[in-house]
Every structure is written in structure tokens, then in C-alpha cells.
Amino acid sequence: MSTEEELQSNVSVASSSPTSNCISRSTVGGLKEHNYLGLSDCSSSVGSSTLSGLADDDKATISLKATELTLGLPGSQSPARDTDLNLMTPVKLDEKPFFPLLPSKDEICSSSQKNNASGNKRGFSDTMDQFAEAKSSVYTEKNWMFPEVAATQSVTKKDVPQSTPKGHSSTTNNSSSPPAAKAQIVGWPPVRSYRKNTLATTCKNSDEVDGRPGAGALFVKVSMDGAPYLRKVDLRSYTNYGELSSALEKMFTTFTLGQCGSNGAAGKDMLSETKLKDLLNGKDYVLTYEDKDGDWMLVGDVPWEMFIDVCKKLKIMKGCDAIGLAAAPRAVEKSKMRA
Amino acid sequence: MNYFPDEVIEHVFDFVTSHKDRNAISLVCKSWYKIERYSRQRVFIGNCYATNPERLLRRFPCLKSLTLKGKPHFADFNLVPHEWGGFVQPWIEALARSRVGLEELRLKRMVVTDESLELLSRSFVNFKSLVLVSCEGFTTDGLASIAANCRHLRDLDLQENEIEDHRGQWLSCFPDTCTTLVTLNFACLEGETNLVALERLVARSPNLKSLKLNRAVPLDALARLMACAPQIVDLGVGSYENDPDSESYLKLKAAIKKCTSLRSLSGFLEAAPHCLSAFHPICHNLTSLNLSYAAEIHGSHLIKLIQHCKKLQRLWILDSIGDKGLEVVASTCKELQELRVFPSDLLGGGNTAVTEEGLVAISAGCPKLHSILYFCQQMTNAALVTVAKNCPNFIRFRLCILEPNKPDHVTSQPLDEGFGAIVKACKSLRRLSLSGLLTDQVFLYIGMYANQLEMLSIAFAGDTDKGMLYVLNGCKKMKKLEIRDSPFGDTALLADVSKYETMRSLWMSSCEVTLSGCKRLAEKAPWLNVEIINESDNNRMEQNGHEGRQKVDKLYLYRTVVGTRMDAPPFVWIL
């Protein structure tokens, strides 16, 4: 498990223990999927993220408070945890690794399928949430042939359990619902981010807005070391760290793939994957955020709701750069002060 | 006219203020060109990369007011990366070096830094007016320099900017000798405000006409502010939460009654709706009401407020008003000219929204309506036909059906006929935004009838290149064309290259345009900047064997007299 050790050395959490405890599930493609502990199986690894991940077996000894030292990200898989920490959204078993930055094989396949469907256009389809494949393919596909479109539209709508009556927006305020098809089209509806953010802050500050808690968007900038430009994400469109990480993965994958000269077409995937492995061998990224006080913290140590409350900016740093960020103790301190 | 001495001609030109007219005048003859350029004081540059500061100053050495726009419109919706460009710094540097007597600077969608603001504040003795709309890149430190150094500052108008709030004391940087303020708008600042400094500033500004506060100004401070500025014409309320029986509220009511000049009201970011009645006494004077950020005001409180506003000409509102609320507007606001209905719930909560019925009601009740921006859930061709009949005077018609590709919800037909009716009836239409299910047919109508159309926004519409061709061939006055997610490709792009010389810009994203098409265009039209913004590394496109057929994510092209810009970031490829 040499890769694991490599990863562990980059994790700057106090009580990490070198462990081989990672819960992994096989996927259809034969790859092992991993949970938020961030320790990926080296056989499938094409680079993994490091986060403040700790071993599963320590979880039992941790107290119930959500802001205590948590093992892995909130929402990571653990039987004991799920019952105790009701703040956490139960995570699907086949959840993808937090931030490998390189898609696993089947993500490459699925994204290339999407690409083919959308005529090799990478841009906006990448920002679509993976759960929304069914719905999203309808919208990314250029439905130039009208009558078919009308038909496809209605069919898809029926299939989607939670089709939003009010147009094309995603997300749910009830985080307990299963990841229903939510498709997000970048820049639609055409409303300025300033307006979205302002309305969101208003809704957040008010006690009740017709019983809709926390409606509105919350855009924060996401930058990545080495990426040509930064992006914005709407934190409110995700209900847990898993969704955020998948979305970021998609958004920033294009930069790393780009370095390899891959065009994402199905035929070249095999080649690029090995190239990528080589490229990213030894590279790892962590997700960090700047909070209200201007401090940079590692993402994942506080409950999701608290996180979106304090997060001002996101940054995907190289693991080596992030070593100085002692996440857990500080995060706990801060959250205690705020509580 | 040429028998008059130049001074007389110049005096005549002074009465010509519109940019279009001045531009036309300057084309009449050399002598007029010369007179006009020396007398032009206000210059408008719709695309900051179409020219450069040196050329500006060479032609208009006496300029006093400059308006600059930077990023393309779709940057508002996150479609343009932040680092794309639109920096104001080189402009300010050049203006400062030339010692031109700049008095006013108006910027939209540009990147402004604290350094730029500091330089601005120090370089122009008579600087009076700063208006920033949808800009970013600066902090309250930059505002502090403006406050401290601009001795004759009249207007500081910050509209919807992204400003990093350092919670400093920028308001107290206005010297005690500063008494010239007419406009102070800091509604977009998120942080704490020094209320004492603010009150003192307002108290010593007898000419203050427009005051827009941010969220951090509570109701008791508002009461005091209004009491010392009863001459106020345009008020933006920040936080409006209070207990209706409290002393502050009573003071506020008294102060409001004295504000007989108040004509425009906005804000209410945090609002206790039952306190709105304090404003009822002055509502009959209001000509402009912007409640589009007032998420907490709806239902009966909203209706009651509107029912008092009989003279309203401009209304910006959230769709929580509902069709019924719009019917009240239609029966009350007979003078209404501009209406904007924004979506209140962007996350699909399925709340009350507006439909085609609200739009029809407004069109029937408000004969003077000429500008509309309407976000709704559904629309029908019949409704649009009715609207066209009721309101043939539209100048701006922007309809956004929230779900892309949604057809007429009654007939399941595309909305071609509806929009066709609009462009046919509204002969003065200058701006149009389309949505819903649309085929090439709608573009045929637009090309045929929309003779005055200057700006067209297309999303998820059309079938073939013919659609775009109809528009390019038909709309002689087209200036800005922006298209996203529509099947227009190289054939349409390349059909008439000279057309782009008559336009300010063209934006196409997620369309069928390929890299080779763009390259061919760039070759044919060296006076265009053809910019490719790619999500992924541009090198990828080069190395890719299928380069020619590679689709372009985002294409932005614009005419320019100064060639390729030097400040483009690496992900922008200028062909």
C-alpha cells in the first residue's frame, strides 16, 4: 500500500494513524470506489486526494458532537456514525472518492458519453451534476430537431421524480431526499450572481420565508493551483461535501486532462489514463477554504451547514502547500466559538 | 451652415448631446469633424477593447466624462472567466498622464483595483462623479481614497459590484469640508457601516438627492438620516426591521412625511413588512419602486404598498407578486413604462410565480409600457399575440421562461408565432431576449420585421444555420448579438463577414462553431478580434489531430481599431 503511505505523509491531521482501513466498494468497471477517508486503493489509483482523513476504527471512540474531531469528512461511511451524527447526510455506498482529481475509469466513460451526446462539447456539460445524467443529457444534447425534443422533454420529465416545476434549477432544501435528478446549466436562468447572492443572504437571515429554509444561491470563487482561471460554484446547490467534491472534480478535471493532450474522446481514454497516472503520480490536491475571518482551513471538518455559512472562497491546493493548515483543532475551536 | 464661424457651429453642437448624433455630425465634413472633436465632452465607449486610451485622447482632448464597458454581457451569468480582461488601470494611467480634465467616470463590467481608484482620486482635481456598475476587483480601501482625495465629489454610485469589504472606515475618510455630495450609493457593500460618520456626512450634504444604504444600516439610523435629509429624491433602504411601536419607528414615520421630494424607493433587503405602511404617505409621489431584493415582502403588504403608487413609471419586483399582484399593478399604475419581474426562487421550490396571465394583464392595463423583463414559468403564443396588440410601443422586450426549450404550455407548439407577433407589432423594438421552444421560424420573423433591433439574446433556440442567417441578413441595425446553446455553426458565422464591422460584438457559446471556422473568419477580417475562450487548455486544441473540427466552447468577436489586445490571459486565444 505504498500509495497510501505516500498519501498519509501529506495529511496534516494530528491523530492520523496509518491504516489500511478503507471501505471500498467495487463498481461495475472493476474499480474500487472509495469513501471520504481519502485513502484510495493503489491498484486503481490514478492519484488521490488527501484530506483530513482518519481511520474508521477510531470513529467509535469519538464523541457525538459534530464539531469534534471527525474522521474523514462528514458523511463518510460508517455504521456507528450514521446513527449518531444526524447532521450528516447519509452517503451512498458507491460514492466517489473525494478528490482524486482524475476521474475513475467509468467517469471518463460516462463523461465521454455525455460528450458524444453533446457533440464533443466539454464546457457546460461538465458542470452538470453526475446524478442528473438522465435529465441532463436531454438538456445538454442539442435538441435541434424540434418535435422530438418536445417528446423527449415530456418523457424525461415524467421519469424524473423531483422535476422542479419552476424551471431548471437544482437543489433541494431538504437534504434528506435522495440525490434526485438535478441538472444545473451554467448561467441559467440568466440572473446575475450578485442578485442570487443577495437574495440568498436575505433568506438566510430571515427566520421564516414561507417555510423555505435557506433558499437562494451562494456563489463562492473556486481557484486551483495551476489552473488558468477560477470558477464560481453555488454552495447551496449541494447538500453535502460529496456533491461539492464531485462537481469540483468535474470542473477542474479538464485542466489536468488538458495537460496530457487528451480530448476526452472515447478511443483515447485508455491511453490518457495511464499518462495521467504518470503525470499525477505523487501529486495530490486538497480542498481548502477561506472563512469569514480570512483564515484558510481544510475543507471537511465542520458540519456542512456550518461550512457554507462561513466559507468565503475555495481553493484547490497542492497537498504539499496545504501542510501548514492544521485543520481539525482550529476548526473545532472556531466552531465552538461560533456555536 | 459652413458660412458661420466655428464658434457658432460649436455652440449649435452644444445642443446635440446624444452620442449617436454627435457621431453622425462628425462624419459630415472635415471641418465639422474637427469642431465636433474639440467640443465633445462626454465620450461613450461600448467595448473598451475597440479602441485604446491613446486614440481616445488624440481625438477628444477636451473630454470630461468617459463611459467604458468591459466584459461581454454574458459575463453577468458566469459564462466569462473572471480573469478575461476589462481592466480600467491602463485607461486611468493614460488619462492621468495626459492631464485631461476628467470629471466623470462610468464603468460597467470592468475590473477596477484599489490602485486604479487611488490613481483616479489623485490625478483629477475636478473629479466629480464615479459610477461603477457590476465591476469587481476593488475593496473599501479604494473607496477610502476616493472619499479622501476627491475634493469636489458629487456622485459615488456603486451598483451591484463585488466589493471586498475590509470593514474599514472609508466613510469617515470624507473630509469635513466635503459638502458637495449629491449621490451616495453603497447598497452593495456587505460589511458594517460607520453610522456616526454616515450621519455626519449626510447632515453636511445639503445637495444630497440620492442615498442608497446597505444592509448594515438599521431602522433607527434610517430615521435619523431621513430627518436630516428631507430633500432626498431617491432612497435605498437597507435594513428595515423593527418593532412598529418603537420610538425609532415613530420617528421614521414623521421623517418620511417630510420627504415630499421622494420619487424613488428601493432596497428593503431585510424588511418587516408590516412597517411598510410608514411609506404610504409618500407613495403617491413615487415614480420608481425597486423591490426586487425585498424577498421578505410579499402578499398583502406588497399589494397595499403598490395600491398607493398611482404615479409609478418604473417597477422592479420579484415574481412572488404573482399574477394577482400584477393585476393590481395593471389597474393601479397607469403610468407604468418599465417593468421587471425577477425570479424569487431559483432553487425550484415551486413557489408562487407568474405566468402569461400576469403579462397579459399588465399589457392591457399599462398602455405606456415600453420596457419589460419578465421571468416566468410558462407562456403561450396567444398571450404574446395579445401583448403585442396591447403594447405596440415596446423598445425592450425580454422574456425568460425558466425552463429551456419549453413550448406553449397549452398547444405544445413552439413560441415562434408569439415572438413573431411582438417583432411585427413593435416597430421601435431595440432589444429582444428570447426563450422557450423556438425554431428557425422565429428568426425569419425577426429578420423580416425587427428593423430597429440592436441587441438580441438567444438561448437554446433554432434548428439550423438558417436561423442565424435570417438575423444577420435582416437586422440592419444589429449591434450586439449573443447566442448560447444553439445549433448555429460555421456556415452562418462566415456567410457575411463584413456584417461584423457594423456590429459591436458577437458572442457564441456552446454552439456548433468550429476552430477552423473561427480561423477562417479571423483571416478574412483582420479588423476583428476573434477570441476563443476555452474551458480547457488551448494547447490541447493545437495538438489534437482533429483540430479543424474541434468545437469552440466560447467565441467572442468584436470590431476594433487597435488590433489584438495585449492583456489577454492564457486561456483566451485571439486568432
Question: If you had to describe this structure to a student in words, what would you say it looks like?
Answer:
- The complex is a heterodimer of chains A (339) and B (575).
- A 5-stranded mixed β-sheet of chain A has the order 4-3-7-5-6. A two-stranded antiparallel ribbon of chain A has the order 1-2.
- Chain A is globular.
- Mean pLDDT of chain A is 53; it is low at 1-182, 207-215 and 257-282.
- Chain A starts with a helix and ends with a helix.
- Chain A has a domain at 219-256 and 273-327: Phosphatidylinositol 3-kinase Catalytic Subunit, Chain A, domain 1 (Ubiquitin-like (UB roll), Roll), CATH 3.10.20.90.
- Chain A is built from 10 helices and 7 strands.
- By secondary structure, chain A is an alpha+beta fold.
- With 575 residues, chain B is of the alpha/beta class.
- Among the domains of chain B are: 1-40, Up-down Bundle (Monooxygenase), CATH 1.20.1280.50; 52-238, Ribonuclease Inhibitor (Leucine-rich repeat, LRR (right-handed beta-alpha superhelix)).
- Chain B contains 21 helices and 23 strands.
- Chain B has a 21-stranded mixed β-sheet, with helices on one face. In chain B, strands 5-7 form a two-stranded parallel sheet.
- In chain B, helix 6 (114-123) packs parallel to helix 7 (140-149), helix 9 runs parallel beside helix 10 and helix 17 packs parallel to helix 18.
- Chain B starts with 5 loop residues before the first helix and ends with a strand.
- At the A-B interface, helix 5, helix 6 and helix 7 of A face helix 21 of B.
- Chain B: Residues 4-45 form the F-box domain.
- Chain B: It comes from Capsella rubella.
- Chain B: Keywords: Auxin signaling pathway, Developmental protein, Nucleus, Ubl conjugation pathway.
- Chain B: It is found in: Nucleus.
- Chain B: One of its GO terms (biological process) is protein ubiquitination.
